[in-house]
Specification:
The structure is a homodimer of 230-residue chains. Chain A has helices spanning 3-13, 20-26, 30-35, 45-66, 72-82, 85-94, 105-109, 116-134, 136-146, 151-158, 160-169, 211-228, and strands at residues 177-184, 191-198, 201-208. With 230 residues, the first copy, chain A, is mainly α.
C-alpha cells in the first residue's frame, strides 16, 4: 500500500501513527498474509485480539459514567448493542475502511471488502494498533469519535423490540407478535422477511440475514411509523 | 465495616484508595444491599461490569507482549484459562477476600463467603474500583501481582488435558481416555469422579463439580505422577 493511501487513512481517523508498521498490520487481512506466504503473526488477528479488549473497556467505562442509574444487567445489554458485528461494520463503512484493507484475491472476489465480519474485525485491529502506538487515551478518543457516537440511535436499533413493546404497553396489555412471512435465497445466503403485528394490524416489516435481525428491523420500522403518525 | 478492617485489606492488596467508598462498594454483595434496602446501584455489580473489562484488557495486553509467537486463537484460549471463575476464585482465596465481604444473612448461612461465583465477582469489582480510583496503571499492577502470577501453572491446570495428550503422543499414537467412575451427592451439588486411562492403565483420578473439571484434574494429577516417575 502506498504511503499516500496510509496518510489519507490517518487523516480520516484523526490519528498519526509513530510506528506505521502497526497501521499496515491492522489493515492486513489473513487472506492476504496467506496468499503472500507471510507469517500468520503479521496479519491483523493478534491486533484484533487486543483491540477487542480495548473496545470492551473504553465502551464499558463510557457507559458506566454516562448511565449512572443503570444496573449491571442493563449496562451489559447496552454494551452488547455497541460491541457487536452489525454496529462495528456500520462504523467501518462510515470510515470507508474497506477501501484500505489488504485482501487476498479469493477474499476480494467473494466480496470480502464489504463483508461485515471482515470490516468489524479490522476495526478492532485498528483500535488495538492505536492502543499499542499511542496508549489508552488515544484509543479512547478514536472509540468515542467513531463508535460511541449517536448511541441513542444505536440503542434504538439494536433494542427496537423492547422499545416497541414499551410504546404499545402504554395503551394496551396485548403484546405485539412477529410473523415470518418469507424466506428468500439459497440456504447459505438466506434473507428472512418478518412482519410485526398488533391485533392483526401490520405495524412494520423487516428483512435480515437472521430471523432475529429481521424482527429488530421490523420493530424499528414500526417505531418510526408510529412516531410519524403521532 | 470498621476502618481497621478496610486498612488491613488495603495493606494486603498493596493499594490505598483515595475514595474509600469505592472499596466499600466493591466489597458489598447484592445480598447485603437487598437486606439493608440500599439501592441496587450501591452494591458491587456495576463495579464488576467495569472490572471485568479492565481485567480482560490488562490480561490481553500482558499475554500479547509475553507470547509474541502465539496466534490470536492460542491467545484467546490462554486468556480464557485466566479470566475464568475457577482461577479468579482461587486468586480471591489467596487474598482471603471472603473475610472482607459484606453479605446478607441468607447468603452467609448458605456459604456465600466461600462461593466461587461470589469471590470471582468481588475480585472483578475490586479491579473496577482500583481502575476508577487510581487509573489503568494501578489496576494493571494489581492484576499482575495477584492474578497474572504463576501463569505457567495456571495454564497447565486449565489445559491439562492437552498437555497430557502431548506427553503421551511423544511415544504413542493411542489417545488417553476419560471414564466417569462415580457421581456423589444430591443433584444440585454433585461431585463427579473421573479416571484418565492409557491402554487400560489408570494414570490419574480427578474430582470436580462438572465432568470437565474432574477430567482436567485427572489429567493434572496424571502429569504430576508421570513427572515424579521420570
Amino acid at each position: 500500500m502506498g504511503h499516500n493511501k496510509l496518510d489519507k487513512f490517518e487523516e480520516k481517523i484523526g490519528y498519526t501513527f509513530i510506528n506505521k508498521f502497526l497501521l499496515k498490520q491492522a489493515l492486513t487481512h489473513s487472506s492476504y498474509s496467506n496468499e503472500k506466504r507471510m507469517s500468520k503473526l503479521d496479519n491483523n488477528e493478534r491486533l484484533e485480539f487486543l483491540g477487542d479488549a480495548v473496545l470492551e473497556l473504553t465502551t464499558s467505562h463510557f457507559l458506566f459514567k454516562k448511565y449512572s442509574k443503570l444496573t449491571e444487567g442493563e449496562l451489559t445489554k447496552l454494551r452488547a448493542s455497541i460491541v457487536c458485528e452489525p454496529t462495528l461494520s456500520q462504523c467501518s463503512k462510515d470510515l470507508e475502511l474497506g477501501n484500505y484493507l489488504l485482501l487476498g484475491k479469493g477474499e476480494e472476489l467473494s466480496g470480502g471488502r464489504n463483508r461485515s465480519s471482515v470490516l468489524s474485525d479490522a476495526l478492532e485491529s485498528i483500535i488495538g494498533a492505536i492502543y499499542l502506538d499511542g496508549g489508552l487515551i488515544k484509543a479512547e478518543e478514536f472509540v468515542r469519535n467513531f463508535i460511541l457516537t449517536d448511541i441513542d440511535n444505536k440503542k434504538l436499533f439494536y433494542d427496537s423490540k423492547t422499545v416497541l413493546q414499551e410504546i404499545i404497553q402504554q395503551s394496551s396489555q396485548i403484546p405485539v407478535k412477529y410473523y415470518l412471512i418469507d424466506e428468500n435465497g439459497p440456504d447459505h445466503n438466506k434473507i428472512f422477511v418478518v412482519e410485526v403485528r398488533f391485533e392483526n394490524k401490520v405495524l412494520g416489516t423487516g428483512r435480515g440475514r437472521s430471523k432475529k435481525l429481521a424482527e429488530q428491523e421490523a420493530a424499528y420500522n414500526a417505531i418510526k411509523e408510529l412516531k410519524n403518525n403521532q
